[in-house]
Amino acid sequence: MTDAKPTLPTFPGGPDPNQPIPREAVEGYDLERYARLSARLAEGREPREGILATEKLTERGWANIELTWMLRIATALLAGDQSLALEFDRLYVEAQDSLGPTDPTLPLDKYAHLVAQLEGGRDPTEAFAEHGLSLADAARLQRAWTRRLAQDPAMTETFREMVGGARGG
Description:
Elements: H1 31-43, H2 48-54, H3 59-78, H4 83-97, H5 108-119, H6 124-130, H7 135-151, H8 153-167
Helix pairs in contact: 1-4, 3-4, 5-8, 7-8
């Protein structure tokens, strides 16, 4: 028996998973700057072309930056290293939270209704639109209510009852 690590497959165009995953900036975009721009583009409040123009990027330039970082993250995960993905997630959430309200924008009963819709299989984009939420707004709302509910067991029980009532059960 050998203690040698198995050779991992390589994603086309990605870094070698058998070597340390590069973390240096891609065309001037380190992980934090990539996360901030990703969040800003995903927010959908500004025209994409305008955001890219402000950054002096073309669609092709942005696609290269995005693909390179996604391949690095995926390759690191393939190699069993979650640190790059976790760091990106933290930076992306921070960037996303900086772009909108971090307190709940729906009262608890309306949030419970939304959760019941989603648990019942409703298309998220339709449910979010019905409540006036973008995908980014919904993510912030979920984090806000999760923080509050985690600190208040009585409110959590009330929430569970509201979700059950909205589902009809």
